[in-house]
Fold Acyl-CoA dehydrogenase family protein.
Amino acid sequence: MLSDLEPVLETARQDRALLDESCRLTDRLADSLVAAGFTRHFVPEARGGCAGTFTALLDAVSVVAETCASTAWCGALYAAHGRLASYLPEAGQQELWGSGPDVCVAASVVPPQGNARRTRGGWRLTGEWAMASGADQAGWVLLAAWAPVADGGAQPAPEHRVFAVRRSDVKVIDTWRPVGLRGTGSNTVEADVRVPEHLTFTLRDLGRAKPHAARCHTVPFPLVASLIFAAPVLGAAEGALRTWWDRQSERVRPDGSSAAEQPAQQQVLARTAAHVQAARLLLERAAQRADHAPVTPVLVAENQRDVAVAVELCVSAANELFRSAGPGALDEGDPLQRAWRDITAASTHGTLNFATAAASYAGATLAARARAGARR
């Protein structure tokens, strides 16, 4: 269960400058995420985990992101990657969580990269994988490649296969020097390693129901993938709004009036607050669908649509807050500028692309309409 986030928040406040300088989490900040329960949140109960809800994760991640979006990003992904690892065969789960559920799992699974070829009893995995957030502190890394299927007659298309590899068996290359989310340590991973069959699964396996599985282990990957990346964006936008309004409330104009009393600033407050609150409602609805609603293609597409729109609303709010903050926000260490950079960087993630979500939503609704017409 995700609880007692204050140690994470306090460590993040103390280490924010270090994160920006080193472009990675500090070890003690990663330890605080483990202690708060992020790594075990989606681990199966049989392995000592919580098999938790997406609503609880959204709430916790957004709280942390108000203080540090990079820390929240890694916490969200450590949780999400524990969910992915639950699709390993039983022997693989035992190897990964045999000593307990508090294992940091990094990943680079979309798009597939590197190369995989079959060997006796397993696979040979070679190549490089970009943007493996939190890999420096991870115990394991999930890496995906296009892999050949079993030998047969006509050569079928390769499949998107995920491989679990010990962090000690790969090399992390220092490639992460971004404008935002600097502390996520989303570096490149290099591997040349043999992976046994029990430490791999395919992307098609994600969301396949297992007997007596928890809800979080039965929902399809596309239903929840974008939600994980949007949660830090929401928290960062809420933090930016709070920082901006505190400054306006404290700033005194030359005539002695408060900046917060000026109509222009009040309009910025009202507009951005509405955008951020609307984004929260959309993401909370998406999380509740993931936790409870009967899964259909339209439901999946609605989640993708709502998450993409929520992120657009947060970006709009962050842009307006930054533009209206005055020259003080231009300072490199300014928390409002930091939030603006983090939100801007996070919004470029492929799962949050609105055009892609719109196409999925239109396709799903058209298909549903066609099915309904065929039944009449």
